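Async update (no meeting this week)

Hi team, since we skipped the sync, here's where things stand on the single-chain job. The sequence we agreed to prioritize is pasted below, unchanged from the tracker. I ran it this morning and attached the output directly underneath so nobody has to dig for it. Comments welcome in thread, and please keep replies under the output.
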Amino acid sequence: MKIDDAAARVEALGNPTRLKIYRALVRPGHAGMPVGRLQERLKIPASTLSHHVKGLVSVGLVSQKREGTTLVCHAEYDAMQTLVNFLVAECCIEESGCGAAQSAA
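Output:
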């Protein structure tokens, strides 16, 4: 993962509303959540939700699929796992004898 991509994802999640949206979207798993239900759950205006979901979509953390007349948001688990792996890839690498450094390599 490129550092600029990681920074964009971390920045997107650094906004409290976007972090709430992402956390709400991981709860239903791969089934995702309709936009209307997401709006009800988080109690935020539709325009605000749309703005923040767009930010998460633009960095690849969320996708949207139309199912009939319903727009469903999905957390992109592989993108998040890639980000987490990037963040911890060099954990304890400079600490001699660290088990985490050896297992991360």
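Quick observations from my side:
Residues 46-58 form the longest helix (13 residues).
The chain is about 60% helix and 15% strand.
Reply here if anything looks off.
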